[in-house]
Amino acid sequence: MPAKSPVRNPPEERLLNLVVALMATEQGLTKDTILTSVSGYREQGDAGASKDALEKMFERDKESLRGLGVPIETIGDRADPDDLREARYRVPTAEYELPDDIEFTPAEIALLNLAGGVWSESSMSADARSGLRKIRALGFAVDDPIIGYSPRISLHDPSFPALQQAIEECRVVTFAYLKPGEEEPRQRRVRPLALVEYEARWHVFGFDLNIDADRTFLLSRIVGDVETTRQTFDPALRDGAGERALAGLEELAERQLALLEVTPGTEAALRLSRRSRPAPQGIHLPYVDELILAEELASYGPEVRVVEPEGLRRRVIDRLAATLERHGGAA
User: Fold this and answer.
1) 137 vs 26, 37, 54, 141, 266, CA distance in Å?
2) Which of 109, 154, 172, 207 shows a CA-CA span of 20 to 30 A to 189?
3) SS (H, E, C) 8-44
């Protein structure tokens, strides 16, 4: 029997397909339907992934989407709502619909049309549309036009398109990368295997040929253009790369916990609560990059106080002091 072709399902593509599927039906989809019909899970199952592995992938994806603010509902049995053995999942579209009595002026319509330029049929991948067709074939009602809820993501870091194309073509890339604490960027030569989003920032995961080891790079730290070389690599190396990258980032974040005191009811409390857990003295916030977290926490001003670690606390204080100085204030 010939070997099955390698399966490549970038996590961001699978998440998009899942959102489209869950918004396409009012009565919701069972887990079995999702795992066998939605692109990203279906191919993994066809390639031999166990049901347990697929279910764990789905649970992680649900949490990722909820962390991004996607309201995934779980619907139990009608006779017994607490019975979730045959639970169905959906994203309620009613939260996105406008009331019938809203009217717009010509100027407002022009602005909406301009803003609507980021929404289009092209934003949905062929896999997403294929998933919708399969769900229709199963007899589930699909609300049209579903495309109204399919964003075309275009606001990436400048290096995103080149890295995405290099991954698709399995080509080695080179780029200059500035590590935290260093004054000059270093040249990297990498087999790019996956683009992943973590803590609302994009990373590229790959094999660094200069040090012969897997590495994850923050796209915002790439300096200048990404150069795509003629050197290629085996497409099979991409299999599971996104999952490995996210697991590595989560493991790193769990080793780095910030203890914060946050003023209730503030923007900081709203945004940080999604990524943190309660602590005896405030909240514990896992993080990957201390410099980036310091920038974020400083932006909240007096709404957040860093208790520990001391390095993070000092960075936030330095940024607040620099802001005060730029505006002519006194400490």
Assistant:
1) 16, 10, 22, 10, 47
2) 154
3) CCCHHHHHHHHHHHHHCCCCCEEHHHHHHHCCCCHHH
CB atoms < 10 A from the CB of 6, how many? 13
Do residues 181 and 289 lie in contact, with contact meaning Cβ atoms separated by under 8 Å?
Answer: no
Give all strands (DSSP E) within the chain, no chain letters: 29-30, 73-75, 88-90, 171-177, 186-198, 201-208, 213-218, 222-232, 257-262, 277-279, 282-286, 304-308
Helix (H, G, I), strand (E, B) or coil at 145: coil
- Pairwise CA distance, residues 75 & 139, whole Å: 19
* CB-based burial, 57-91: b 16+ in 10 Å, e otherwise: bbeebbebbeeeeeebeebeeeeeeeeeeebbbbb
Tokens of 133: 């067709």
Amino acid at 43: E
Tokens encoding 155: 């606001």
Phi, psi of 228 (to 5 degrees): -95, 125
At 218-249, the pLDDT tens digits run 998 999 999 999 999 998 999 888 899 999 99
pTM for this predicted structure: 0.52
pLDDT digits (tens, 9 = 90+) for 93-151: 665 455 566 666 666 655 555 444 433 443 444 444 444 444 444 444 444 443 344 34
At 95, list the tokens. Answer: 């939260």
Amino acid at 320: L
* 195-200 contacts at long range (C-beta below 8 A, 24 or more positions apart): 195/10, 195/12, 195/160, 195/163, 195/164, 195/167, 195/242, 196/11, 196/12, 196/242, 196/245, 196/246, 196/249, 197/11, 197/12, 198/246, 198/249, 198/250, 198/288, 199/253, 199/275, 199/287, 199/288
CB contact at 8 A, 156 and 45: no
CA 323, CA 52: separation in Å to the nearest integer?
51
